[in-house]
Sequence to fold (229 residues):
Amino acid sequence: MVTQKSRIKLMLVDNDRNNTRIMTSMLKNAGFEICHCLLTTDALHAARRQKADIAIINISDDAFTGYNLCTQLKSCNSIPVIFISSHHDETSVVAGLEAGADDYITIPLRPRECISRIKTVLRRRDRFPTILRYGNITVDTIKGKVSKNGQEIFLSALEYRILLVFITHRGQILSRPRLLEEIWNMGGDYVSDNTLTVYIKRIREKIEDDPSSPRMIKTIRGQGYKTGL
Fold:
C-alpha cells in the first residue's frame, strides 16, 4: 500500500469507461491519488497543474496519439509513462517501448502485477542520479537526454536504457544473458539475443569516436561486454 504521507499522484488517460472504472478502483485501493483524463489536451493541462508523479496511457485504440502524448509529457514534466494496451503482440510492445514508455502492460490487467510494475517504474526513477557522466558522454536522467561533447545525441528509448545499464555497471563484464536480464529488469523490455547485437552496434555508432574500434563499450571475446573507461 502507498501510505497517505507518501501518496502518489497518478494520471490515467483512458477513454474506455469500463477499463477506467476497473483501473481507478484498483489504483485507489492501492493508495494512489488518481486524476482521470480523456483527451491529450486535458492530460497536458493536468500534468502541468497537478504535477503527476506517473502517467498511465491506454493506447489500445489510438497508439499514435498515445505516443505523441508520451513525448509531450516527458518533454514538459519528465514523468514516467506506462502504456496499457489490448495488443499483446511483440511488435506492438516493442513499438510502445521505442516510443518512450517506461513500461508496457497488456489488458486484461493482473492487479498485483500491474501495481508491482508501477512501483518498479517509480523506484527506477528515484534510483539513478540526476546526471551521469561517462567519458565525453553526459546523461541527464531527469530529461532523458544524452549528450556527447556537449551536443545532444538522439537515442531511442531502448538504446537509452541499454546505455544506462552499461554506465551503471561500468568496469564490469556483462555476459549477454546478464545484459538481457538487466534490460528486462530495468524496463520490462523483451530483447532477443540477435536484436541486442543490433542495438549495441547502433549505440556505438552514436557514442564512440571510432565505432569500428570501440573504447567505451568493448567486446570481451567469449565473455560479453565491458565498459572501457
